Amino acid sequence: MNWTYAAFAAIAAGPCLIWYARRKTTEAVVSADQMSETAMWGYFLMLVGAWGALGLLFNMSDLFFALMLVPAVMAGVAKFKGYKPKDNSRPLPDWAAFGFANWMVLAIIGLGKTFVVEPMQIPSSSMRPGLVVGDFIVINKFAYGIRIPFINEVVIPTGKPQRGDVVVFRFPVDPRLNYIKRLIGLPGDTVEYRNKRLTVNGQTYDSVPVGENTYSDKADEKILAVRMRESMPASGPNGVGKQYETLNVPGNPTLYRQSVMDFQHRDACQYDDTPGGENSGFICKIPQGQYLMLGDNRDNSNDGRYWGFVPEGNLAGRAFLIWMNRNDFGRIGTAIN
What we know:
By secondary structure, this protein is α+β, with helices and mostly antiparallel strands. It has six helices and 17 strands. It has helices at 3-24, 37-54, 60-68, 70-80, 94-115, 304-307; strands spanning 117-121, 136-140, 146-147, 154-156, 166-170, 178-185, 190-194, 197-200, 203-204, 206-215, 223-232, 242-248, 269-271, 281-285, 290-294, 310-311, 315-324. A seven-stranded antiparallel beta sheet has the order 1-2-17-5-6-15-16. Strands 9-8-7-14-13 form a five-stranded antiparallel beta sheet, with no helix packed on it.
């Protein structure tokens, strides 16, 4: 389904339902709880449609927050005009009734999704084997600070990203999109990925095969990969090491050199000039205020090796839990490592 068409259809259907409800209303509405359900659905359709349509211009998470506050604005304007939720001495307009009836619930949902936790669906195989297509995950939105929507500036610091975190961020190439990858390099780190081995600040991470993983992104395609257990050593005297699994497709190159973009701070990286060669790969000195992200499915991931670094201002939160997978209920409740 083309969701853009569906969004504009919802925007068009909403006013039609509201008009129909007004035509059918025979008694004056003086309290918000008397509002026609048809009109209520009309306003909801307009909000959902606006979310989908404006998503062509803005990040969907930011839009959700703004649109969930629209009923509160409606209620505030109605209050300013002398209306109240119940027992008005004059007819209550349906827009005012909608605001009074829904502002608190929708504002709580908007604030919770923006500043506390946010659900997200995994759309690709780039984070296999830990995350698969169809996983619904939960993101800790305050892990890296309470941020102002749209500008994403931190107003209340709560924590810093750590190597190994599974991070959701605004895609630097198109900030309207949310991406999810594993954080490999912090500001100031030197990261090298060569011959499918990861080295950070001169320390090569252990990566040992632990089994196989067969998956399919297309109906007529099966990909056989090797599951690798990568060990990230502790950083600093009080640091804690981390282990997680990645995928390695035998025969695939470490890097597709022709896919590397001309990104900001491109001069901080050096790429091998022999695509597919034995020592193919790259090395980057990560600039201040920037992070390097890679997918766990190392041979099938559009990540930082191709489009560069993630600015601190693009961070959205840390993924920590799978709460639903309709194809595999056994994955429900799995912690994201």
